[in-house]
Structure formats: structure tokens, C-alpha cells
Amino acid sequence: MIKKEIQEEIEKIQEADILVGIPSYNNASTIGHVVKAVQAGLAKYFPNRKSVLVNSDGGSSDGTTEVVEKTTVEDFQAILLHHKVGPVFKIATPYHGIPGKGSAFRTIFAIASNLNVKACAVVDSDLRSITPEWIELLIKPLIEGGFDYVAPLYHRHKYDGTITNSIIYPLTRALYGRRIRQPIGGDFGFSGKLAEYYLEKDVWETDVARYGIDIWMTTTAVANQFKVCQAFLGAKIHDPKDPGADLSAMLYQVVGATFELMETYADAWKAVKGSEGVPTFGFQYAVGLEPVAVNLDRMIDKFRLGIRELHDIWKGFMPDEVMRFLHKTDVMQKTDFHIPDEIWVEIIYSFALAAHSKVLNREHLLKSLTPLYIGRVASFVIETWECSAAEVEEKIDKLSLSFEEHKSFLLNRWS
Question: Cα(55)–Cα(295) distance, rounded to whole angstroms?
């Protein structure tokens, strides 16, 4: 898995305390800022630790790895560093195996294992909002707090991250009983021990290697009783998309991975009732967020088209009262358009049960969820148009409680 020349670099470094990984694919325009932030964070907060930065690249053709190799923080005094700054070792390597973020992470886990590191973090290569403090917040709970997994906590625009807000967060919270607000955030910290555990899992020739690595890491940590926490990182600024745009592929990938993990960890989630918070680090503050465009008319049109075209598929596994409700929404005025939490919970649990019982091809099943998801997001946008960020969080918490309270719907039908 590790090329000979990279193995030679590892042998020169021998051991390290901290490893920060940056998976990439054609990110030459943004990765320089990420590398600088990582280097500054390591120098500022861990000056006495031996640190390694690993860029695991998917075969970029735009010079991404060259940017990583050339980028350095030239003036540490500009970031008010006056103590001695040790070198940060850099390894830039293409990964092998199935193309995808998971394979990039596997290479990072392997290098971490070879260097016997104590603490690791991975950060996305297209971040515009990362600061040196992210490295402190993702690494320090591992080194000083004895945690194994640090999930990110961000402030995001109320219409950004809608798959997380409407499905992945409330579902994983109800299943596994831990309130990890951004289970697919993309930026994580984990102990060397957990990196070894991930590496030993037999998933690297599956869809986990292609996509789904984020929810797999979070779920694996929680379901196997590793010590988890979350760290507030401020705003996550990336390129948000209109929630009504074509999100079918992402929905299929993320929800499919979550349902697959329900099979793996059925014994773990069946025994869980309710949920509890996890320790949260970092000073929380309000941040300015970039606007997200929403086209409500297009979203409702896609939802209604789905009802007409997919009715026969859905009625094979969804409760009759849910089907009757969906037909009523088909004639609702836009101002009255609303899909209640309880109906949405039954829809998601029904799809999970249909995937479990293999009533039809998994890809066809999950892609048929897209118009329902778009309809639910449209309903949420209408409901929260005038709401503050705090009020929106209250509504997401209420939805999550509904997933917990109706978990018996899932349990009673899961065989």
C-alpha cells in the first residue's frame, strides 16, 4: 500500500507524536492555505512534538502535490510565535486502491501506524476557513484529554448541510445514543490507537473506500465504545450548494453508507434508548456565514413529480397513512406546504427497513428517496424562513427527539 520511496521517508523519520493528513484531488487553488494553517497550528500549539504532515492525493493533474511541497510558513513572528519552531516533516504521496476519499484515508492511517503516532487529524483540502486553532482543537483532546475521537462542530448556514440536519444527525443520534452534531463533517481528530483499529477493518475494497468514510469513522468509533468528543471550530466555509440542486448521488452515498452500518452494528443500536451529549471543547461564538441560494418552486415541483412517478415503488414498503399524506401534499398551496417530523421519521425508517429486507435494488431504492428529501427540505425552509440560527437548532433537536421516540417503529419491524 505504501510506495518504496515513501517507506524510505518513514524510516528516516522513524517515529512521530502527531500526524495531520490532508486528502486531495485537484485542489491546487486551495490546499496551500490549508497546509500553512496546519504548519502554523503545529508550530504554535505543539512546538515540542515531532509532527508530520501527510498529503494523500488521488492523482491530481493541477499541481496539487507540488503546492504542498513548496508551501511553508515563512514568517512565524507574523503569527506571534517567538519560541523555537521545529521542522514539520512532509510526505506527499499518491494513494493506491479504489479511487475515493476512503482510500486516501487508508494511506494516512497506514503511515500513522508505521510512525507509531499518538494523535492524528484529517482536514479537507478545500477549506477556506481553517485556522491554526483547528489543529489545537482537533489534537489536544487526544493528547491531554485521553479521547480517541474528536468530531467537528461548526456553525453553518441554516440551509447548508441539509442531509446532515434532516437525516444523518437525527438518525445516528437515535440509533447510537450520542449527540455528535456533525457526524459527516470531514475534519476529525483520532488517536493512534483508533487509527490502528480503522486500518485493521476489512472494508477497504468496499464502498467505504469510495465514499462514506466520514460516517464510517464516526459510527465505528461510537459503536465500538471509543471515547468520543466534539470540538467547536467556528464556521466551515466551502462551496455550499442549493439544497434543491442535484444531490441524488450524495444522498445515495451517505444514506446508503449509514444503512449499511445499521447492518454491521445492529446489536449495538438495538439496545440503545434515548441519547446523551458528548463533551464539547472550544469557545463558541457567533460567526458570519455565506448565504445559500434556495429555489423553493423548483424543489416543490421535483417533489410532486416524484409522487406521480414513484408512487408504485413507495407503496410497496411505506405505511398507508404516509402514502395518503403524500398525496394530500400534492395539492397543497406553496404557503401551506409542510411535511411534519413524525411523517418524515416514518419515511426514513421505512427506507431503512426496505434496504434491510432488500425489497428492491438498493441503488434504485435510495435514489427514489431524493424527491422526498427535497420535499422535506422545502418544508423546512418554509417553516424556518424567519428563524434565527438558535431557533433552527431547536427545530433540529425536536426532529431528533422524534427519531428517538419513534425508534420502536424501526425495532418492531427489523427482523
Answer: 37
Beta strands 18-24 and 51-57 are parallel
Give dist(CA 175, CA 147) in Å, integer: 22
Per-residue 3-state assignment (H helix, E strand, C coil) for 388-405: CHHHHHHHHHHHHHHHHH
d(CA 260, CA 356) in angstroms, rounded, equals: 8
Tally of CA atoms within 13 A in the half-sphere of 106 that contains its CB: 27
Element of type H or E holding 376: helix 370-384
Q: Say how far apart CA 343 and CA 402 lie, in whole Å.
A: 10
Per-residue pLDDT of the chain (415 residues; tens, 9 = 90+): 677 888 888 999 999 999 999 999 888 999 999 999 999 999 999 999 999 999 999 888 899 999 998 988 766 666 555 666 667 899 988 887 778 888 899 999 999 999 999 999 999 998 888 999 999 999 999 999 999 999 999 988 888 889 999 999 999 999 999 999 999 998 999 999 999 999 999 999 888 888 899 999 999 999 999 999 999 999 888 655 544 445 788 899 999 999 999 999 999 999 999 999 999 999 887 766 666 778 899 999 999 999 999 999 999 999 999 999 999 988 888 889 999 999 999 999 999 999 999 989 999 999 999 999 999 999 999 999 888 888 999 999 999 999 999 999 999 999 8
Copy the grid coordinates of residue 43.
508550530
Sheet with 51-57: list strands edge to edge.
88-94, 51-57, 18-24, 119-122, 188-191, 149-155, 228-235, 280-281
| Helix (H), strand (E) counts: the chain | 19, 8
Distance, CA of 198 to CA of 220 (rounded, Å):
8
* Pairing, β 88-94 against β 188-191: unpaired
The label of the residue with cell 467547536 reads 232
